[in-house]
Specification:
The complex is a heterodimer of chains A (about 120) and B (about 120). Chain A is an all-beta fold and about 120 residues long. Helices cover about 0% and strands about 50% of the residues of chain A. In chain A, a hairpin with a 2-residue loop joins strand 10 and strand 11. Chain A is globular and about 45 Å long. With about 120 residues, chain B is mostly beta strands. Chain B is about 0% helix and about 45% strand. Chain B has a five-stranded mixed beta sheet, with no helix packed on it. Chain B has a four-stranded antiparallel beta sheet with strand order 2-7-6-5, with no helix packed on it. Classes of the chains: A mainly beta (about 120), B mainly beta (about 120).
């Protein structure tokens, strides 16, 4: 399967714990996005990377959230001191940024986080 | 904020054409219209996009009005598997490599229910 891969698919954690999610984009895609989606809402943009550089962060990305893409390939999203309000689906997407424009973004299946 | 307006829900009979409207009255000249859909518990799936001409692919057709203030996604022969939330998004055409444009801003979409 050469699509966007996210792990784990589901995560249940206790409030106050730290969690980390991983995203493997489509090979050679240089742009990687993170989104969050709560029930009944569309995905909300969190941040994106161009290769290893984090170029934009949404105001939704609080200080407890940190994302990395150290080698410009896979990315991790960490949430520290989780709160119940962090319960959501976390989606990753990737695209190829070329001089003549971006390709469409391809999404992974998401990681569903439940904070209890 | 999303720059599009869509009806919250629609029904369609199996085998009939599904016509999903979208208003984007403030669209700029350099913005494309994108359509994605999201089947329950999966990540969003790209369907089609266009600038001003009508577009067709194996999944759907996109009809954009001449003034570009609205568009319609057409699924020619809807099946039960087309039941999903459909998102209409306007997205800046990225002209410069590495530019910050191109992020997808989702609204709430239209929940399409295809009924037997």
């Amino acid at each position: 399967d050469t699509g966007v891969s996210q792990n784990p698919r589901h995560k249940i954690t206790k409030r106050g714990q730290n969690v980390t999610f991983r995203c493997d984009p489509i090979s050679e895609h240089n742009r990687l996005y993170w989104y969050r989606q709560t029930l009944g809402q569309g995905p909300e943009f969190l941040t994106y990377f161009q290769n290893e550089a984090q170029l934009e962060k949404s105001r939704l990305l609080s200080d407890r959230f940190s994302a990395e893409r150290p080698k410009g390939s896979f990315s991790t999203l960490e949430i520290q001191r989780t709160e119940q309000g962090d319960s959501a689906m976390y989606l990753c997407a990737s695209s190829l940024d070329r001089r003549r424009g971006n390709t469409e973004a391809f999404f992974g299946q998401g990681t569903r986080l439940t904070v209890v | 904020d999303a720059k599009t307006t869509q009806p919250p829900s629609m029904d369609c009979a199996e085998g009939r054409a599904a016509n999903l409207p979208c208003n984007h009255s403030t669209i700029s000249g350099n913005e494309y219209v994108y359509w994605y859909r999201q089947i329950h518990s999966q990540g969003p799936q790209y369907i089609i996009h266009g600038l001003k001409n009508n577009e067709t692919n194996e999944m759907a057709s996109l009809i954009i009005t001449e003034d570009r203030k609205s568009s319609t996604l057409i699924l020619p022969h809807a099946t039960l598997r087309d039941t999903a939330v459909y998102y209409c998004i306007v997205r800046v055409a990225q002209m410069n490599y590495g530019g910050s444009q191109g992020n997808l801003i989702f609204g709430k979409g239209t929940k399409l229910s295809v009924k037997p």
